[in-house]
Design brief:
Length: 122
């Protein structure tokens, strides 16, 4: 029988992360790109590095959240606010791949709710 799960996995990979062409950037270099003293302003979402130095001035959510996460990872925060298609429209901001760049905040665990229980059961 055909294994659709791996096919789905690779489709998601293609749409969200066709990033093999991007250079690998060491975490220390990413963390140094904090937008201060003339350096570039980079943020990391799902181990992809985005250069938001110029974009931050036209970001609909303002400069502040991007400056706050400068040189850091903010994947779950990004996902809480934006739709799944948002990054598709901003591929030109991608400058590299990285790993080991920490997120400064732990993701809060979802609190119990009858709705959550219902969605897990059915
Ligand atoms: C490459 C990085 C980012 C891109 C391309 C981006 C793009 C956008 C876009 C297009 C919108 C308009 C709404 C939408 O289309 O989803 C938006 C809104 C917003 N973004 Fe971002 N964003 C980025 C990173 C972030 C980060 C890291 C944060 C904070 C953790 C953030 C916080 C917000 C907020 C607060 C809004 C306003 C939401 C509202 O008014 O309802 N963004 N962003």
């Amino acid at each position: 029988m055909e294994d659709n799960s791996s096919k789905l996995g690779s489709m998601q990979h293609e749409t969200a992360q066709a990033t093999d062409h991007l250079p690998h950037i060491p975490a220390s270099q990413v963390q140094a790109a904090d937008g201060k003293n003339g350096s570039r302003l980079w943020i990391v979402i799902d181990d992809i590095v985005y250069d938001v130095t110029e974009f931050c001035r036209r970001h609909p959510g303002g400069e502040m959240p991007l400056r706050h996460f400068a040189g850091q990872s903010c994947s779950w925060q990004f996902r809480q606010i934006h739709g799944p298609q948002t990054l598709e429209r901003y591929r030109e901001l991608q400058v590299g791949r990285t790993d080991g760049v920490p997120n400064p905040y732990e993701k809060p665990k979802p609190k119990f709710s009858p709705r959550l229980l219902w969605s897990r059961l059915f």
